[in-house]
């Protein structure tokens, strides 16, 4: 099974070339990078492109197994070797024979185990717990860690000799924030790959830009989880800032809203749609919005809005060609939206939450529009 590394950036292209170069070399590899950036995927790609591709790929998370069980998991044991050893057990080192052993989070391995692992890598044989028989093994080791092992060596938590044994071919995987251009294609990949959802989600420019501006401290793993969450909650929908619950986005993602470029698509439409809903609705909020349009904007302005809306309807029906008169529909909608937001801010004393409620807009969308039009909030 081939494991694909998704991404068309220059950084990922160089990573792919490096994997192609080192895969045939049957020596140890040390993959470094932050948690969630795809180190295991890189290890699998190295295995898939090596001469051992049809042999076992055995993964062990050294940080997830308790220290007193790790030796048994790696080396195996004989029946009766300790309390609870009711049968012989082949360890991961034997399971990986002729294939690749992936030691994830090697930086979390206890020092006592590091000594024993070093011996195995040097001698290429293993002795199960409770046995005195040496068993020859033929394995390639790929290790990974999110820690700086040189700092760990200086602190006395990692053996220098084991580091040199593992770090024959070093591979660094960059965090997602250093390859932001890949975020849209990763989102598309994760959305289309969900078998539990019939139709994949798509993102409008506003939300796409927001997610690209976010730093993703959990890297690709966090992005994948976010896409999965949105796909389950909004299956098959086109998502933007105005129709996604902000609590379903990563914590802190909205903090980068001020840095976003203004999306070309949907300019001036959201608030105008809110106006149309207010004209048609009969709820308390609808009435309040309609009263605001009449009282705050004024009769002449309300009439102008009505006339322009009627012109839009006429355009849709084919009665009038705006372009012939030198007018832009998008520009007109933006002008109306800016005017309504400015007057609503004045009416609410600059209270963004009240203003958003009055205009029937999502607060995040309103903040985006305020920044776009460079409106002042008291």
Question: What's this, in brief?
Answer:
The chain is an alpha/beta fold. It has three domains: 10-174, P-loop containing nucleotide triphosphate hydrolases (Rossmann fold, 3-Layer(aba) Sandwich); 179-259, Helicase, Ruva Protein, domain 3; 270-373, no CATH class.
Structure description:
By secondary structure, this protein is an alpha/beta fold. It has 3 domains: 10-174, P-loop containing nucleotide triphosphate hydrolases (Rossmann fold, 3-Layer(aba) Sandwich); 179-259, Helicase, Ruva Protein, domain 3 (Orthogonal Bundle), CATH 1.10.8.60; 270-373, no CATH class. It is built from 16 helices and 11 strands. The chain has helices at 10-22, 39-48, 67-75, 92-95, 111-123, 149-154, 160-166, 183-192, 205-213, 219-233, 270-280, 284-297, 299-317, 329-347, 352-359, 363-373, and strands at residues 29-32, 57-61, 76-77, 89-90, 100-104, 125-126, 135-136, 140-145, 169-172, 202-203, 238-239. It has a 5-stranded parallel β-sheet with strand order 2-5-8-1-9. Strands 3-4 form a two-stranded antiparallel sheet. A two-stranded antiparallel sheet has the order 6-7. Helix 12 packs across helix 14 (329-347). 29% of the residues are buried. Residues 261-285 and 312-321 have low confidence and may be disordered.
């Amino acid at each position: 099974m081939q494991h694909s590394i998704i991404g068309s950036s220059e950084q990922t292209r160089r990573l792919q070339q490096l994997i192609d170069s080192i895969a045939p070399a049957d020596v140890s590899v040390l993959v470094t990078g932050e948690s969630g950036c795809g180190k295991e995927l890189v290890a699998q790609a190295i295995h898939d492109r090596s001469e051992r591709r049809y042999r076992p790929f055995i993964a062990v998370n050294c940080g997830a197994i308790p220290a007193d069980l790790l030796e048994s998991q790696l080396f195996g044991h004989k029946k009766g070797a300790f309390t609870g050893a009711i049968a012989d057990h082949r360890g991961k080192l034997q399971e990986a024979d002729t294939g690749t052993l992936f030691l994830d989070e090697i930086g979390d391995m206890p020092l006592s185990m590091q000594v024993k692992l070093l011996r195995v890598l040097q001698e290429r044989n293993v002795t199960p717990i409770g046995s005195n028989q040496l068993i020859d093994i033929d394995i390639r080791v790929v290790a990974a860690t999110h820690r700086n092992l040189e700092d760990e060596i200086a602190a006395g938590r990692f053996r220098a000799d084991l580091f040199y044994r593992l770090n024959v071919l070093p591979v660094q995987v960059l965090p997602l924030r250093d390859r932001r251009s890949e975020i849209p294609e990763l989102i598309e990949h994760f959305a289309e790959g969900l078998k539990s959802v019939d139709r994949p989600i798509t993102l409008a420019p506003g939300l796409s830009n927001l997610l690209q501006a976010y730093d993703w401290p959990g890297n690709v793993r966090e992005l994948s989880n976010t896409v999965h969450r949105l796909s389950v909650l909004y299956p098959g929908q086109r998502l933007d800032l105005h129709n996604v619950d902000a609590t379903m986005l990563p914590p802190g993602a909205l903090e980068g809203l001020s840095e976003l470029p203004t999306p070309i698509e949907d300019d001036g439409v959201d608030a105008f749609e809110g106006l149309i809903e207010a004209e048609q609705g009969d709820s308390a909020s609808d009435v309040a919005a309609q009263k605001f349009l009449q009282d705050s904007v004024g009769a002449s302005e309300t009439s102008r809005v009505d006339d322009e809306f009627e012109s839009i309807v006429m355009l849709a029906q084919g009665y009038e060609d705006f372009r012939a008169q030198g007018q832009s529909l998008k520009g007109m909608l933006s002008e109306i939206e800016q005017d309504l937001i400015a007057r609503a801010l004045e009416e609410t004393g600059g209270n963004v939450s009240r203003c958003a409620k009055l205009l029937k807009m999502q607060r995040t969308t309103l903040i985006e529009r305020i920044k776009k039009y460079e409106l002042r909030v008291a």
